[in-house]
Each structure stands twice: as C-alpha cells, then as structure tokens.
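Minutes, project check-in
Item: structure for the 342-residue chain
Input as provided by the requester:
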Amino acid sequence: MTQPASKCPNCGALVELPPPAEKPFNVPCRYCQHNILVEPLLRPAANPFANQPMFVVRPPTPVVVRTGSSWMGLMILFGVLVPALVPLVIIGGQRGCSIKTLFSKNPFPLTCGLNEHIELDGKTGDMKDGPLIVAEVNCHVTIKNSKLKGPTIVKVSGPNVEIHLENTTFEATKTAIEGGVNLVVTMDNSKIEAKRSAIAAESNAKLEMTNGSKIKANQKAFSCGYGADVTMDGSSIEGDEGAIDASGLKVQIDGKSSVKSDRNAIVGGSNAKVEILGSSEVRAGITGIKLGSSSEVTIRDSEVRGKEACIDLTEYGSKLTLRKAKLHGAKKLGDGVKVDEN
C-alpha cells in the first residue's frame, strides 16, 4: 500500500511512497520524472487504519464559477453542487472549488490546483500583495468579463498551464503572468497592462491573440526563454524595452495587427520564423525584426519600420521573402541570406 508524501520539489505534483524499507531509495515523480531521494527515517509510519473502509469526497471537474445566474440556475446550484462542496470548504480553504470562489465577487487570492479547471465570470480583484491566482501543474483557468488588478495576476508554479481570457482586463504593477513551461495563453477581446513584463514564461510558451486584444508593458511585453509561438489576428503588442522576445520564435501577425517597441520590436534568435501579413505593422525605435541564423522572414502587404534597421538578418542560412512590403530603415543582411522579392 502506498502512502502520500510531500510535493515534488521540481513540478509540485504529489509523490506517493511505497512501504518502508531498510535502505533509502529514489521515487520518480510521475509527472516530470524527477528522482526524489527518500530516507527511511522520513517515511510515514504504517497506517493503523489500512484495512478500514475509506470515504473520499472528490470535487466535480471542471469547477465552474459564474455570476448573474437565473433563479433556476441558483436552485440547481444549491441542490446539486453545494452538498458536494461543503466538505471541501471545511478542508480546502481558498482552493478553486470553495464556496467563497463560487459566490464572492472578489474571491482572490485563490489557487488552481493540480489538474483543476476553474472558470471565473464577472469577477473583480484588486490586491496590493501577492498573486491573485496561483496556477499549479496541468491547471486550466478561464476568465471572462472580469477586471483584475495586483502586483502579479497569475503566478504559474508548474508546467502545462492554460489561461484563457475573454473580455477581461489584467492590470499588474509587476509582471502580469509569470513563469511556466508549456504555458498557453489565449486572449479574445482582452487586455493586459503591466509595469514590468506582461507575460514572462520559461520555455515553450504559446500566445494567441484575437478580436482586438492588446498587450502593453513598460519592459518586455512577451518574453520566453525558448520555443515560443505567437499568433496575432487584429491585435496589438507594445513593450517599451521589447515587444516579442524569445529564442526559437515562431510568429504570425495578421489582420491589421501591430507590434511596437521603443527598442527592438521582434527578437527571435536562431531557427526563427516570422510572418507579417494582412496590412499589419511592426515599428521599432532601434530594429524592427532581428533574428539569428537559419531563420525565415516573410512580409506580405505589410509595413516594417526601424530607426536603425527595419530588418537584421546578418547571420548565415536565413531567408527574406517580400511581397508588396513597405520597409522603412536599413536592411542588414548577411552574405548568406537569400532574398526573394517581387
């Protein structure tokens, strides 16, 4: 019989321990495969109630948080969900499935735990300290028709977190969405403003913006260590110190979107691919698009401006394709760069 132990120090998932043994051994985390050394003295004692029946109350998944429901909806809520959630309120505190989250206009701070799904609709949050939401491993958060303010709006503490914003505004005095591997952020008619960075991910992040969504930051608007994928349709990104910055970057800007910065607008490192399409605009105080080796840039029916250079492709193996493109500023192209223009 296995027994629960502490969270994995690498990804935060719970680790289960086998029965005690004489020698120490490693327990692999089932989510990230991190090996955790377990000493015999640290193992929990044998469960004296191992042969007794156990009664477990599990929360419904996904957890749905809404406001403005009809009376019939409220009756169903009280009659079906509340009896199942009462034990969770007693032991769960401010977890995403608590009664506070369901009924409060301002349920923050709250935690979206391991594998949880949370939907917030019509919420208002304004905090002076700490993140409003902590998102753990495999957490999915959907926020609609809400306005949230604080130092950090979402602190991502594990991989595979998804954040969906619809008709929602984030206002952060620090970084709005911080951390995470394999982070996914989708924005529909939503806005993020931040005094530092708007979104700062660790690696393999995906950002999708549609329907007039906007990101504005005093530092870098969107940054990721490696492997970022950005798609924009009729939306805008603006960062004073950089708009989009990631190694191994993939960007598609379409539908009259705009990317602006006082410094470099798009920085993609090596093996990057950038497409500026559909009457979109890239504007920068220094360089519009700056990529490393083996990268591709396509500009079609769009405009790129940079005071020092509109495009910087000085390293080997890159390709520049221009179709009805308007370029303002120098083109810095290396000897090995292929240019296809007509």
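Outcome recorded: The chain has two helices and 37 strands.
No further action items on this chain.
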